[in-house]
Amino acid sequence: MQDLLFPDGDAALPPSAPSAPSPSLRPAKAAAPRLARTAAIEAQVPDPALQALAEGLPAHVRLGTSTWSYPGWAGIVWDKACSETLLAKQGLSAYARHPLLRSVCVDRAFYRPLSASQYARLSAMVPPDFRFVVKAPSLVTDAQVRGEEGRGRQPNPAFLSPDIAVREFVQPALEGLGAKIGALVFQLSPLPMSMLAHWPQLLDRLATMLRALPSLRATAPDAVIAVEVRDAALLTPALADVLRQTGATYCLGLHPKLPPIEAQLPMLRALWPGPLVCRWNFNRRHGAYGYEAAEKLYEPFDRMVDPDIETRAALARVVLGTANAGQNVYVTISNKAEGSAPLSVRALAEALQRP
Q1: Which CATH architecture best describes the domain 2-13+56-352?
Q2: Residue ranges per domain, the chain?
Q3: Is 180 helix (H, G, I), strand (E, B) or coil?
Q4: DSSP 43
């Protein structure tokens, strides 16, 4: 099974150059629809092919998107165009009725810690078999205190603090989401060079924090702690050792700041067997700092603009290898991956069932 999941057989962990961008078609954007601001949000009625596609996926493979409050998903996820504010408050219930969307990444927890009651409101909107992927607050995962423009201003004294990680993230999530937790993700923001130059000390701090976290299994049997990085220099056997020793796993991050999937497979191999947590964040064609450009190009996120067939096919192979071994799979996809996250989810589901 390891050979099927990791066919390259390469045990090293070097970063590699980005793959060539996929050809893209950029259709003209449609005129913005009039948005409903008060009406109830209903799910788009799925077509039979979509329903059949969902029924063909293993129960322990959960696909989803990065958050859900996008008016442009009308006709894909929602039955009509609604305001972003209304979707943010009420849209998750309709989202969870989409046959393929059985998970979601709660990105907003990264910007400000959520309370147990806020998590509980989210939990009440979804069925029992739905699973949340939640990003830890930047308060504990960013080594720097940043200004509004995003530049680091000073060292963050709370970086990788065990007490803050438990109090502001893990404990509220456990209390509010309970068994509906799929993965709690500590995404380490890009680190200053001074810290990367002393990465053994960094990994010691990470290990100390991970060991201090409470066990998830009693409350959330499917849950896993995952660590995602933004610096390719951290993709080393030493990081894999820390994760293995602390019972955490590696979050496969698909982002231009990291090498392609194939170069990240050794991290998964080192932790095998185990669940797969993947966040497909951003299309490689835009480069490491093209997030805002991609957002402007892809809005309103209602169509596939830059299909990344190569990445999708590679991800499908890893998902299948993990699922066939009976391990849980959590994959969440951003609109900035290909243009429309729910359409990317559908395309991935199709790839998973293609002969």
Answers
A1: Alpha-Beta Barrel (3.20)
A2: 2-13+56-352
A3: helix
A4: B
- Residue 18 binned pLDDT confidence (cut-offs 50, 70, 90): very low
Confidence band (pLDDT; 50, 70, 90) for 8?
very low
Give 289's pLDDT tier (boundaries 50, 70, 90): confident
Q: Residue for token digits 């065990």?
A: 162
* Res 27: pLDDT: 43
- Model pTM score: 0.89
Rounded Cα distance between 307 and 303, Å, is 10
Which segments of the chain does DSSP mark as H helices, in order? Answer: 2-5, 48-55, 84-95, 116-123, 138-141, 162-165, 171-177, 193-196, 199-212, 237-246, 261-270, 291-298, 309-324, 335-338, 341-352
Do 345 and 333 contact (CB within 8 A), yes or no? yes
**What three-state secondary structure class fits 233?**
helix
Count of all residues that appear for the chain in the document: 355
